[in-house]
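ok trying this again, last paste got cut off
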Amino acid sequence: MDRVVQQAIAQVLIPLYEPQFSDHSYGFRPKRNAHQTLKKCRDYITECYGYAVDLDLEKFFDKVNHSKLIEVVSRTVKDGRVVSLIHKYLNAGVKVGSSFEASEMGVPEVGPLSPLLSNIMLHELDKELESRGHKFVRYADDMVILCRSKRSADRYSESTSFISST
């Protein structure tokens, strides 16, 4: 039953969020895929952005702050009942063997709602990179920033090292 409720929520929310999401984001979105991600990288390389900074947002799914995610969701979702249901889903915890573990942080990686919630949170990063004029592509929690020079790539690599290690 849990998966049915999650799927219903996702089916209602996806049309609300899709128009907001970045064109640089390809993972777990309708009509977007890894091949398009690679094509966009190729396009940037053709435009002389030949240096790449590869970011893997390690343990992203495990470290999502529930309060921050609910705050971001609430900007678009105005029905408090839906927001409350999402919050309950995030806090539901997991059963490991015969014991129960609370989930105070993170987004479960299984379930129909998880990819959408992850993209909602990662969209905040996309907006920041776009505001700085970066050329990048993101597929779920993997990201590549493309640069015209090695010096720029090194600078971005140093300035974004906190992202990939958090």
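PB: full thing came through this time. The mean pLDDT is 91.
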